[in-house]
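Page header: ASSEMBLY MODEL / two components / 946 residues total.
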Amino acid sequence: MSRQLLRLFVACALCLQAVLFAAAAPAAAQRPRRVDLVVSGGTVVTMDAHRRVIEDGAVAVEGGRIVAVGTRGEIAGRFAARAVIDARGAAVIPGLINGHTHVPMSLFRGLADDLDLNEWLTKYIFPAEAKNVTEEFVRAGTQLGLAEMIRGGTTTYCDMYYFEDAIAEETERAGVRGLLGETVIDFPVPDNKTWPDAMRYTERFVARWKGNKLITAAIAPHAPYTVSEAHLREVRAFSDRTGAPVVTHVAETRKEVADITRDHGASPVEYLARIGFLSPRDVFAHTVHLTENEINLLKQNGVGSVHNPQSNMKLASGVAPVPQLLRAGVAVGLGTDGAASNNDLDMWEEMDTAAKLHKLSSGDPKVITAEEALALATIGGARALHMDADIGSLEEGKRADIVVVGLDALHQTPRYNIYSHLVYATKASDVRTVVIEGRVVMRERRLLTLDEALIKQKARAIRERVSRSLAGK
Amino acid sequence: MSRQLLRLFVACALCLQAVLFAAAAPAAAQRPRRVDLVVSGGTVVTMDAHRRVIEDGAVAVEGGRIVAVGTRGEIAGRFAARAVIDARGAAVIPGLINGHTHVPMSLFRGLADDLDLNEWLTKYIFPAEAKNVTEEFVRAGTQLGLAEMIRGGTTTYCDMYYFEDAIAEETERAGVRGLLGETVIDFPVPDNKTWPDAMRYTERFVARWKGNKLITAAIAPHAPYTVSEAHLREVRAFSDRTGAPVVTHVAETRKEVADITRDHGASPVEYLARIGFLSPRDVFAHTVHLTENEINLLKQNGVGSVHNPQSNMKLASGVAPVPQLLRAGVAVGLGTDGAASNNDLDMWEEMDTAAKLHKLSSGDPKVITAEEALALATIGGARALHMDADIGSLEEGKRADIVVVGLDALHQTPRYNIYSHLVYATKASDVRTVVIEGRVVMRERRLLTLDEALIKQKARAIRERVSRSLAGK
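Prediction written out in full:
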């Protein structure tokens, strides 16, 4: 069954259920419906279209989906839960969406810093990757990144790397949601030595995960300056045929804009528009250097944009025109980029930085409010990844990706406004419990699907190998 | 005894001790010297002039001062410790120095955000202060801020607020080091209704704390645009007579520069130079908008500068010319500003942001390296506060302000470079144990000098009052 059909079916089923529920209301009051899970109590920050914030709220979950959001009293009256997460005194928010990562690169965290992008890539990252990136490396790095992301309340991430099929396996096993793009590029890389090999790999990869609840397999041409026009057209045709999303880096640096302009007589998004690359299945990371016309092209073609403020600062890339993108109606999400460039996968710092950076950059301290920053990391990210029918807010019918966040640490005391509190004061360490697709993957800071000690041990062993490989070159 | 004499005495005593130790070396090998405390094992990041990093190092402490820094083996051979802090696997760093705070304002954390400085101050902060700030409020807010700072590894802070004498009492009781400035300003404020009252208060305040090991009492004229020229001259004379440091806000916003230029025919630092205000006891917070001449004036006059990147971003004030200040030889520290504007007292985020912001702002990703960012928060801050003879690095003879930082959280795995690791990956929540003046104030994340539950309870009660006071206006 296609995703569209499946969504329609679920929507119908939910309508039908609502009708039946309404008809049976008096009886239902006595016989509450059995559900898998209720997250009960706390301040429910829905991020829905009305931006409802429900004090002493609750969320009911059945079959991996949210079946109701309301006050604790309402939900208690309507549902009998097989399991309850007590969220009293905490915030209950939609799972955070990390819109741009290279998850196995967490194993290169801090390998090389304070360098320009070109030097960093060519002297450190590319040699380190050439000498170390195997499927085993990718699995270990993915586990490390997943564990860090879960601990920080990230429930969905959008990735680009090599051996992405292994990343998908690890992600599904950890119970995390991923839009995972196999990287294709015009030179030999660790998993595929030729373009045809990479396209065959991607074909199998996309076919394998079709219909999976957690994994959406995608194709990820590295960037318009590392993939030829012919290959970009091939990627577009592949996506049209398979329905696979396309994830790529666009307009990250001034150099890229200059090079593309020199080679193609147009700025990056205009060039991509001209070759028919733009589509509503595209996710463009960075989009730092854009003209007004390019912003309009993204909007007209339904392309999602993912903002990476900390990475763009650290590599001195520039400031993406996020307020302008939002005003134009482009779907904008938020990402950390790989931990090798940021150097963490912490969406809380990214939200805080996004809000502050655009105030500074625009000279207007009212730009990107705390509420807007939280939106970038939730519903905005869902829209940018074209997944907003399923995730990004706490609403009936959406997948049950729910995060319980403590609100009473010293650095969060006192509390006046929930959005300000979450964006400007809350840290990843305040996240307590994480539910993805209705499954508890972290409970009171204990990871349930990953072995933290083993992950660290493997990471340290690989770190030794990486250091030796670079020392020995 | 004056500070200078005291320092001389301590230096002589240490020389003498070294001579005696050398003479008695063979005997000493058998009879190790008794000391109060050894912090043993771990990566000791000294931040001394040679930027020594000692793997498996140790720090010996006696009478509140560091008596030796070396390898674990060396220190174990020379000293017998009454108490040992096991820092194996952790980093041992100089206590962080938060160079600019308004500590009781932690009670206004998140009261009002996403506003311009003027609206924020006049519509929210000033009314909230007028209606709520009493000595009781200041004590509760200070305790809250101190607890947050200790938990994040801050051992010294430079403050400006009202009832600063009460802040000093709370700070001493908590065992934290403070350069504490009583705010004087040309309008009635919560503690003093007239300028003469404020000056009398400050006179008593400075006299009272003279010679205190932890507290340095200072005078803090709010800013050159809120204190008249005559009063600024009076502050200068007061500082010259008493030796009290002078803490103030300078060149924070474009509006300030325009106003000062309009009223005095010179930019802020030039104006202050002209009226003889600049001295090597001055600490200027913000210094965002400076000409090259003003940077030279700061250097020539030995004025310290404190950079507040997150506050300057959030209020859209601008980017301080930190690389230029450092190149000119100005002592630059790092601060959070008050938690009402930032919204926390987290020096780890401030270091991370400082490094990233200046890369972006200058377009050069090599500017403000991780090592330099850590320096801003330690030895740089000590210099900016004119306290570098006593604090800012782990060196024999300096006061024993030592922080043990865990290095093995998931978000810190793996580790390649200690500076990158501390600045780009480590969080406040990784701080484990904090020693100030040789006294353990937090052990394995448990506060020993403050009652966290009581602090939170008081903060919540005050929050209710603050909200009511603003609602009722």
